[in-house]
Hints:
- The protein is built from 12 helices and 15 strands.
- The protein is of the alpha/beta class.
Amino acid sequence: MSSGTEKADGTDDSSADSGGHCSTPDSDGEIAEEIAIVSFGRKMETAEEIKAELEGRYEAIEILEYHSDVFEEHWGEYDCFVGLMASGIAMRKTAHLLDDKWEDPAICVVDEELTWAIPITGGHHGANQVAQDLATMGAVPAMTTASEAAGKQGVESRAKAMNAHVVNGDSTIKTNLAVLDDNLDPVARLDGPEVVLVGDDVTVLKRNEDDGIVIGTGSVSGASKDSFLAAWEEALDRTDYDRSDVEFVATATRKEDEEGLLEAAQELGLGVVVFDKETLLDHEGPTPSKSKELIGWPGVSEASAIAGGREQELVLEKISYENEVTVAIGR
């Protein structure tokens, strides 16, 4: 997870989408959790180092020793192959196996010195996330997918941040072009029972979980990662929920670059969704906030928890931690 950010004003940010979490939409729209590191025998020590670094971020990581048919033998068994080899080798050995971007496994290659991590296929379906995970070992993620190359967040990454997956993959060609043109509206929520008719330029996201809660949070500038983690834990302790119930962390666009918040979300493997001022004003919580008088923004924690929740209601009203971080919980 890694934690990406989805702005509710239709713009996006990729700076927060680094670090690791297993919740990457894979080629069939589910979760990329099973990784295979393919390595030559002489590079096994590096392969073991990569496995140790990535463990805990994915459900399963295995190391396969390279031979000429290794990809073909294990094609379809893993969500993503990490090739510890030259990109040309991986390309030549997998090109004839490629069939459909929504069914093919992702492929990311990395050199033995861990200088570059290069997604070759399935960038939006696991390879970009693995490349970003390898950045924690010093590798530079060389992502060439159009939205990421432009410093923008594609719809697949937005789905990841919201703990959802893309249902109709072909639609993302048009919606990601809209991302590049800064012409994609915020993700709209529709709760059923409903019947909806859409065109081929509408991307449909489906939640990975039926129910969940949203952590709404605000802070003073420069609040530490540990303060956010402690505040969120204290808030959850006051409810009947725990970390496994959290869908994502929600905050305001003016807090989207708060380093401690992003680091805390990354540590917990949670996406971060940010809402603009107008959206938060439409979902203002019950607790008075000084920021409303001073800068015109409602209380961020309650408003973002309400805006992000499926039922758009509070489970826990705002609490304050050490005068640094505020937290509310919505569903």
